[in-house]
Amino acid sequence: VVLAGSGDGVVDAAAAGLLHGDEALLYAADLTSSDRIDEANLVIVTDSNRDRAHQWRGTQDVVGFTETGGPASDLLQRDTADQRLPVFATQLPNDQTTAHVEGLDIKATSYGEPFAYRPEDRPAMAADGDPTTAWLVADRSNPIGQSLEVAGDLSGLSLLQSQQLGASRMISSVRLDFDSGASQVVALDDTSLAGSGQRVDVPQGSKFVRITITAVADRPGATDPGLSAVGFAELGLGAHLEVVSVPTDASDVSAATPLAIVLTRLRADPLDRWRSDPEPQLVRAFRLGTDRSLAARITLRQDARASDEVLNTLAGVATATSNQRLTGDPRSTAAQAIDGDLASAWTSPFSNAVGSTLDVPLDPMVPVSSFELTQSVDQQHSTITSVTVTVGGVSTAVDVPAPDGDGRSTIQFPAASGSNLLLTVDGIDVHTTVDRRYGEPTVLPVAIREISAPTIAAPRPLDPPPDCRTDLVEIDGRPLPVAVSHDDVTRLVSGAAVDVEPCDGAPLELAQGEHRLTTTPGIATGVDVDRVVLSSQEPPVEPASSPTVSVQRSRTTRTATVAGCPAGCWLIFGEGYNDGWRATMSGSGLGAPRPISGGFNGWWLPGSNSPVTVTMTWTPQRTMWIGMFLAALAILACVVLIWRDRTIAEMQVPRAAVPAWPVERVGRRQAVIVACVLAVLATVSISPAYGAIAAVVGLAVVALRRPALAGVGSLVLISALAALIIRRQLRYHLVANPSWPAAFDDLHRFGLLVVVLLLASTIVDECPDEESEQLT
């Protein structure tokens, strides 16, 4: 089997049922000119092996957004955490999965937070036409100086800031640098926080703008306990689709070669409230080398972050809804608060219980003047203390009586009639926990286990949706009708993944060339399309049965006896890929091993009707023995030297220098030496600009003949740096994690200058020489 992709693609292909574990699996990017891809039993193209950043400082949030291809980063400033490793030695852009934004070139200096990669905060999110997504930057860090660059049609430029719930900061000022016209400093007002954003004048003919954050301010209604990220949800430039292109290195295979294309959506744990899905929808471009007839299999899941109303519709009922709930938990919808089951509950988000509103259906013919509110009263929840009740357009603020031992309180208000009751949380008795991501005190949610009143209407069944859905998948701009049965919907609502097929069961007839598959975001339909598999109708050719293999092992060799394989076969050495192994058969070398089957050594064995013996040898062991022998000789020589001279001379302990003040003047030659060392060291170890600064200090040293001036300068500079670090920490409350030093990258060169000044002040003896004695 030949796979276009990386190790993630192996997992995706296995999850799609295309791999069973006994195949010889070769990566397309590893194929040589002697390999014939058309002879493969199956070619699998995946959207793995993405061009993206990778950091190794932790085990979570370690990969960045999908970039445009090639070895360079798509960020505008250096990211010291980005230590990506090429999966293949000779990797080319067409071996990678890449992404581009149609109609725009959009890049940023950074995104997300300093210590973790959050690809859902990438620059493309500011131009996707969806205000619920955004380019975000500097979460729990300093955003001043961060910028977003956009090239393309800038007509209609409007700045709409991110719509994060309870964000504590907002951008108050930006500088706009266009390719034509003067720079503009724009103060952002309340219009940038809602609607279509704050309109910005664009100089005529401009096709490029750099938007740099110059100031931030507190954001009204903040509930985030830390310093929120800031950024832009939309730029007013319309909806520009971000298209992900799969590798093209394996697409030009003959029509007789079985082919499968596996497209997998990147998603996050819906209950992880710090993250969002990196890909709200699948948008994939792929290429076919020949006309193909491909069967489609689509994997669906319930979107756990869809609104209450959307999830109710998916379940086929009209019932209570809420404007917000516990992030990513479909079992916390408002419907749980009127289902008569005290074991279930509507639960608010963390830190944002106040302002939550439940919309409960009522019998409009029966007045209501009270209801019983049962809430969770424990150490894991805050408690509601006041609410606003709205019925028939009449609103009443009510203090919630203290709950009894079962969490019950009776809410009373003037009698009114209406088709629904709005219950808004106005005040809570705050309980807190320590946030596991940032270590900050965070307000726990409230939970309403039941709202009981005779007038509450029972859930009303909705007309069942059609079994053939045309709103989930498109190929080349045409809907792909998908069969989703009632049983499928029931499984989706229960949280299970469901595999479905086209309604007519017929294969897709796709012509040679470029194609695009697009799915609808699950936030709109309640159904996420997580994977699409397009595969040849003909079953892949079954390989011949594997010959039996017996193996003998020593510390540095493996000897495998392989029963006859007349057509030739792969010998897979399953101890991890390493090109230090060499294999021989009948005295002839089999060459360097090939990476195979997800990370093992493989050698191709020519066809043979009789058993053959292959000896695999760990060749680096020879070098190890030589090194160990030389190390033993060195140890022996040291023992001999110690034995020959067993006396230890008394060590002279130097007397510590006693600084004198005022410092003595030195000779001109010594002062010139100090000045030269200052300039040269600063230029070589920092930069020419800092060499010039050091040269100024050197001129002062020469003029006054006191090298201690460099030491005094280092003391003043390090004190100033310490004050800046303390001020920045107090202002931004930077999180104490391994990325903490990165918040002070801009001070690094000044720190090096401190070292240079201190070193230069100590290289000459400040005791006066003859010249200085004559002067004094």
Please outline the helices and strands.
Elements: E1 2-4, H1 7-15, E2 26-27, E3 43-46, E4 98-101, E5 104-108, E6 135-137, E7 147-152, E8 158-161, E9 169-178, E10 184-187, E11 198-199, E12 208-218, E13 230-234, E14 242-245, E15 259-264, E16 283-288, E17 292-302, H2 308-315, E18 317-318, E19 321-322, E20 346-347, E21 357-361, E22 368-375, E23 383-391, E24 394-399, E25 408-416, E26 420-429, E27 432-434, E28 441-443, E29 447-452, E30 460-461, E31 468-469, E32 473-475, E33 478-479, E34 482-483, H3 486-493, E35 498-500, E36 508-510, E37 513-519, H4 522-525, E38 527-536, E39 549-553, E40 557-562, E41 569-573, E42 581-585, E43 588-589, E44 594-596, E45 600-605, E46 612-618, H5 620-644, H6 668-685, H7 688-704, H8 708-732, H9 748-760, H10 770-775
Parallel strand pairs: 1-2, 1-3, 3-15, 14-16
Antiparallel strand pairs: 4-14, 5-7, 6-13, 7-12, 8-11, 8-13, 9-10, 9-12, 15-38, 16-37, 17-35, 17-36, 17-38, 18-30, 19-21, 20-29, 21-26, 22-25, 22-29, 23-24, 23-26, 27-28, 31-34, 32-33, 32-37, 39-40, 40-46, 41-45, 42-43, 42-46, 44-45
Quick description:
This protein is of the alpha+beta class.
Can you tag this structure with a few keywords?
single chain; 776 residues; alpha+beta; eight-stranded mixed β-sheet; six-stranded mixed β-sheet; 10 helices; 17% helix; globular; disordered C terminus
